[in-house]
Amino acid sequence: MQRLSPRFPLGLIHLCVAVALLVLAMDNAHAQSLKFATPSPSGNSKSDPTNNPIPVPGSGKVYIGAHIDWNAEAPEAYATTSGLDLLGYGLFLPFPLSSGDFGYFQDKILNQPYPSASSDGNTRSQLMLTLEPVAGGLAMAANNASAVADVVAVCKLLNERGVSVFLRFAHEMNGWWSFWAMRPTAYKAAFRAIALGIQACKTCTATAMVWAPQVGVGYPWGLDIPLNQPGFFTANPGYGNIDVNELKTLDTNGDGKIASGDEPYEPYWPGDDVVDWVGLSIYYAGRNYGEPSEPWPTMFSNGLQGFDFADGVTVQAPNFYQIYCVSRKKPFTLAETSLMHIKYDSLGTAANATRLKLKQDWWRQTINATLFDQFPNYRSTWLFEFAKEDTIPGVIEDFSYTFDAATRAAFKADLPTSRMVFGRSNYVNLANYTSSLSTLRTSGSSGSPGSPPTSNDAPTKIEKPYILLRVFSSLVIVMVGGALLL
Ligand SMILES: *[C@@H]1O[C@H](CO)[C@@H](O)[C@H](O)[C@H]1NC(C)=O
Ligand SMILES: *[C@@H]1O[C@H](CO)[C@@H](O)[C@H](O)[C@H]1NC(C)=O
Ligand SMILES: *[C@@H]1O[C@H](CO)[C@@H](O)[C@H](O)[C@H]1NC(C)=O
Ligand SMILES: *[C@@H]1O[C@H](CO)[C@@H](O)[C@H](O)[C@H]1NC(C)=O
């Protein structure tokens, strides 16, 4: 099966920090508002917040799900331990899907109990499928119909069995830490090919294409790329699979480099007609990386609108909410979020009051009723329920909200429950489940239930969480480095 190898060796991470701090030292003295053009919608929007493969829930409510470590737990076990019946769960797979990936999908999703319905009675359960292209994967999405068909088959199967799919293809595509980083032309062609494959599938009517960059404040996160030095990339092969011919499209202000002041989002917009939901990744990892410091009180809402995380006034990125949610009428999912806390003890120890307080500060500013009222297109939120020893032996990077009893109790007590759509505590084995949801069959011919993808491989375990956290390690360092620039 396809296995992603760690992108950033530790040495490179440290280099990145050094770069970020250097830029910080140079720029800190004159932080000022940046200027960005306001792009306008193309007018051929396929969907809007109400007419959507995953319609927004009624009564101003917000869906809730979590990315979990499938090698450690399954949804029903998560619900039992946390006391939270979430509506959806997140799974990361490589693109293209290998037979081993299918095997893993069958093992973890189809052959284990999965949430079957929502607490509000009108909504199906959900799965966020995040596809991470391997090297060459973007080109394959655009040119290889059978690789696209494999993705469509998975979505079709889930939709027919009552599960809606948030299909998040090549997220954080504007951040250089991804394999598919900073390839606007290839990315847009790939995203469109996947979306058109889904649109052509008659029973994939509950699959929503999710466009989800990294929050643009701090872009390009310490990496000033001089356009006249393409040799930089061959000398530093860790920087994704950047194509020097595409880079100039990222120099949106025409100053000869990819740097602060260039558009972090719009070069990657694949078209109003192929995006159903928009989303962002945004984490807090300490003002200095890993330091247990208070997040800025409205960091999330500031970042969502392109403001300096701390002051909420200085423009540091385009206003994501205004452009993509209001003007382009797309509902918003907070696709990945958490506060990272580094623990120098083991997971088994009792709750730590400092850790609890910091996490609480973060979840209160990202999941709260006032915020939902302020940003009415914010309709879905995803936790990142991981705590792992990663790059530093003996140190646990803890993103979880529910892994210890005290933090879990505080999180549950703070949740604006009446404004959220959970799962119903009813789990079914999807392999056996034949949905009678007639809405699925209204739009077309091929109403026959999809059969599971065939695989001769034994289910394969993917070491995704480990890889993910390595990537996040570099991400948060640079994110914080970028934030400090302001
Ligand atoms: C196209 O995709 C399929 C399915 O992933 C794969 O088996 C095949 O090797 C790909 N073809 C090329 C030319 O890459
Ligand atoms: C609790 O967390 C803080 C911040 O990381 C740390 O300084 C402190 O040592 C921890 N206390 C215990 C008892 O683990
Ligand atoms: C809830 O969100 C609003 C809007 O961003 C913010 O002003 C408020 O401080 C948040 N509440 C808490 C308890 O953090
Ligand atoms: C699903 O089908 C398998 C094989 O037919 C069976 O062993 C299992 O008990 C079924 N599970 C459920 C939840 O019905």
UniProtKB/TrEMBL annotation:
GO BP: substituted mannan metabolic process
Active site feature: 172 (proton donor), 336 (nucleophile)
Domain GH26, chain residue ranges per copy: 45-413
Position of the signal peptide: 1-31
A Pfam short name: Glyco_hydro_26
Keywords from the named record: Glycosidase, Hydrolase, Signal
Matches recorded under Gene3D superfamilies: Glycosidases (3.20.20.80)
UniProt record similarity statement: Belongs to the glycosyl hydrolase 26 family.
The protein, known as: Glycoside hydrolase family 26 protein
Gene source species: Gonapodya prolifera (strain JEL478)
